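I am sending you the entry underneath: sequence plus fold tokens. Let me know what the token row says about the fold:
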Amino acid sequence: MRGATYVHVRTAACAVAVALAATACGGGAGGGADGIVRSSWGDPQNPVEPANTNEVQGGKVLDLIFRGLKRYDPRTGEAQDMVAERIGTTDSRTFTITLKDGWTFSNGEPVTARSFVDAWNYGAHIDNKQNNAPFFSDIAGFDDVHPASGSPKARTMRGLVVKDDRTFTVELKDTFSTWPETLGYQAFVPLPRSFFTDHDGWLDKPVGNGPYTVESYRKGSGMKLRRWDGYAGPDKARNAGVDLTVYTDNNTAYTDLMAGNLDLVDDVPAQQLKNVRNDLGDRYINQPALIIQTLAFPMYRPEWAKPGMEKVRRGLSMAINRDEITRQIYQRTRTAAKDWTSPALGGDGGYKELCGESCTYDPVRAKKLIEEGGGLPGGKLTLTSNVDTGSHRAWMDAVCNSVNNALGRGAVCTVNPVGTFADYRSRTTTFKMTGPFRSGWQADYPLIQNFLEPLYYTGGSANYGRFSDKRFDALVDKANRESDQTTAVGDFQAAEGILAEQMPVIPLWYQNGSAGYSDRLSDVALNQFSVPVYHEIKVS
């Protein structure tokens, strides 16, 4: 997500799963209550407040319990009006937003213009320390509530004005023609008054305006959500609820699926890819998604950011045999990356093979570039990732083998495995990495802007390598101001060209969405972001 780096969390071993939840390994939700979808899950890094959730697991919950002004069609990715009746503008800078009548939160409180404005002001304010605060940076007055340094000058953004219960206006700092298309992202959902009046209570049991309500949540164990019959939207739940059970090893989840103790696994482990077609037949889903996996460099470390290191970074990229790794480990569920976006965007959406030779395996050229750039810092390379899911240890070992073979100097590349996703995220988000680390992106919305600005713009919400380039920032700003989409895409691609030159992040591979499900379920699908469309699932 624009802030939701694409990373899954599951369970480390059956014994651990049992320790975390008596239901795991013995069958996520026991025998499966009538009409309940039993699905694997991973604990979110943070409590699931919308402006602070920028990873996939928390995002799944937000997608179940909230609806915003817009929602992305699960098949086409088109941003369609949901709570919004109309979003109008004459200059692509000032927008008038009118809400549909009849929307309420599950506690009975009406969804009003204030519900949105208060939520956005809370998410933007620096004192609230929300991960997704940069999403509001386009709004006039953001710098007053979230200054780059010093204390805030205001409590609210001047660009947000409530006109009446169903109408508010938004003034942006500059023209941004596609800004309404971003409003399907979960940072922009409305919040009830209870979020502000009893914040701790709300975090324990979130209240939203979506098709499900939270019945219970136990960290490290799971969450039970139930269909809300009072939901006002057109996408009502077709099942009685969803039980999300924490796994820190997706192999354990897959075993539970095959044993009939789980209904849905939305990240089929690499170890099972050779067998999954025989195991599940048509109940296995493998489809392109708006996801890319990468290796990020800690550009806040002087040894990686000094002049000349761009050659080392590009050389390392050329030392990775992506085609061989994706073929041997991932069984056609990954494709070697050739840029920093996703082919799922399509050519008109901005996908173009801009990485060129820097993403092409060439061990001879790789070794030469690394030597020209001054060599590896300290003569060695350590790759870091969590290893509790996603076969990360397998691909990191393969990448190191590829680099070691290219350089011919023995085991200069080694792996630093981190046991849990939560620990790993803590290290990346507090900028404590010393060498290349696993990163990646699951798009928040199907725009090239979303693959570039959050990750590489100075101060971006997911710029965990702290890359900064004034030329890149200027091109992104220019693209955002364009009223013509083709021109804007060209500006974004020019910015992407700077990534090819500087290589602050190595593109590895594009990731398909994958899932397997039990014969109790029907109408199972993944959206373009590789997340199950839970509300459409039927349970027999």
Summary: The mean pLDDT is 91. The first strand starts at residue 36 and ends at 41.
